[in-house]
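Issue 218. Parser rejects a valid record. Input:
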Amino acid sequence: MIERWNTVESRITYHDQWLTVRSDRCETRSGQVIAPYHVLEYPTWVNVVAITPESRAVLVREYRHGIGEVVVGIPGGAMDPKDATPDDAVRRELREETGYTAGRLIRLGRSYANAGSQNNIMWSYLAIGAQQTCEPAPDATEEIEVVQEDLAAFVGAIEAGTIIVQAMHITTLLWAVRYIMRNTLPGLEDLRHDLVTLST
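Output the parser choked on:
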């Protein structure tokens, strides 16, 4: 039977506004000591696949320093203390990054970002009928280009390997595609058809 490790000691070894590093000394049931075991503590994250009334996906193109490249992906980010719920956070992130507001917001599910070394959860959403209602207001450190793409073509490009996106974005995209394929959504009949065709 698999059991939780015993945390013998735990201390914060780094902390700033973006993350906290917790360094644990752990012992397994068999007596193996694992030290240090670093856990990255992040706030809850949210991602959203936003679809316009014209069935276009609202995407963001921005520089990602971890890989040193400009990449395209879906809107999202971390919950702020002022966000009462993940729903509030995803609405804010969509508005700030793109200037779009969701007509209908659907919570698709939650997943672990990386259970081996991170403690946070990511919530995935689908926004239907998204329309631009204001100018984007990204953070001072963000330079974002808002683009609209055909969702089926975007997913097809990911599957073909012609573009690479964040793994957590793929999770949200997968759930969004499955939701659209499994539900009758007024105005999205053609998109549903294209996604079904893509999957066959």
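Fixed in the parser; the record now loads. The chain is about 25% helix and 40% strand.
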